[in-house]
Amino acid sequence: MTKFPKDFLWGGATAAHQVEGGFDEGGKGLSVSDVYTFDSSLPKEKWTDQWHLMTHAQVAEAQNPDSKKYYPKRNGNDFYHHYKEDIALFAEMGFKCYRTSIAWTRIFPNGDEDLPNEAGLAFYDKMFDELLKYGIEPVVSLSHYEMPLHLATEYGGWPNRQLIDFYVKFATTVFKRYKNKVKYWMTFNEINCVKHHPYVSIGVIEENHPNIEQAKYQGAHHQFIASALATKACHQIIPDSKVGCMISYQLLIPYSCDPDDVQKTVESQRTSLFFSDVQARGYYPAYTKRMFEEKGVVLETEVGDEEILRQYPVDFISFSYYMSSAVSAHPENLENAEGNLITGGIKNPYLPSSEWGWQIDPKGLRIALNQLYDRYQKPLFIAENGLGAVDQIEKDGTIQDDYRIDYLKQHIEQIQEAIHDGVDLFGYTSWGCIDIVSASTSQMSKRYGYIYVDQDDEGHGTRNRRKKKSFDWYKNVIATNGEEL
Fold it and tell me: Recorded E.C. number(s) (predicted)?
């Protein structure tokens, strides 16, 4: 068995908008994620609709203080008030690192202020200090689906080039503040997901938009420039820092050996990896020309943009991996994979599925790691991987989540294989290490954590924390550096 590197960063991952709560405390402003509602009376298949298609009316209602709807991401799991308790539990598991995000709206509530909000900065000082007290390395995303709502409603989101300056000011502010506390940074979470949910990714409401593809890729271009400038600033302010991009990597495989399926897979994968291609290589790849032509996209760029991208590529590639997806050029008579939120792919008959229809493919993670390392030859970091499931508390108070242990065990085994293959991987943070509000469905009952939080989909509960069976299992995995699974 191939051993993990001795300094391997084992840990867990969350995002500010899914855990913190305290949306109206400490001077925080509303983010784009604070608009998402949860309504249990709707059919399950409707719960992800707003994730993909947010409307102007929904955004307007969410800003009405008299709205009677429930907005789960404003409450999270109340990490804002429980962070010391939660970090102590992470430390008990032996975490080497904790990946989370800084809520932009805690630092610049509207995004366009001249001066940062000191109360927000102070909160993260306390949080990072608590992590470092236990020797846990913070791994921080600058933007994780939580850009200020004001920048979406008043500026039109990332297609507006002004957002580059707002973002770089935010990034520079936190680099200077936490230069002695945070070494590892990620610029934009799952930056390639703008293809599927432009509202939460770049602040663009698709409804009645004259050219949504133009908006998506124009917004992405501005994020590329912002990411490069943030990377430049980070290296200047924190000389030993490492800055990474972060993509959602849903391994794509041809449904059949039909050449049309193979070609469709190549095209689909390029559309996804285009984002990391630009950030890691520092330029737009050759295939971009045809891709933009077919999408009717004509980018507006400025003199110096190409030089900025080339001079300041990212140091490492981080990614989320939950599933693979089969691709067909002729999907009309094939069964869709219910849970493939990213590609809407075809169901693979060789794979089992989770309760939410996400196809489980551990071996696909080994393939993904090899593909990414072969492509970029830069260090990799698995920023998200996990199983969402409904957990039941037994009569004796335990939570026997063997299904989660089995899922993670199979994936970690494949990570070992990839390391044996020669992949340079320096960290693994399983997703939702403590139960959080789901990004896609806004549920609490879709649980990923090693730590159970007593809270239901409507926000009711004590919010008390409870260890699951997987808690001690992961603790032992970390203690043995992956030798005992």
Answer: 3.2.1.86
Q: What is the mean pLDDT of residues 417-425?
A: 97
Amino acid 345 reads G
From the list 384, 394, 458, 484, the catalytic residue is: 384
* pTM of full prediction above 0.85: yes
Q: Is 190 a catalytic residue?
A: yes
384 is catalytic: yes
Which member of 20, 137, 146, 190 is catalytic? 190
The Cα 318–Cα 144 span in angstroms is 13
Task: State how far the alpha carbon of 381 is from the alpha carbons of 90, 175, 451, 474, in Å.
Answer: 19, 21, 23, 18
Mean pLDDT, to the nearest integer, of 130-134?
Answer: 98
Q: Say if residues 104 and 33 touch (Cβ distance below 8 Å).
A: no
Domains along the chain with CATH numbers = 9-479 (3.20.20.80)
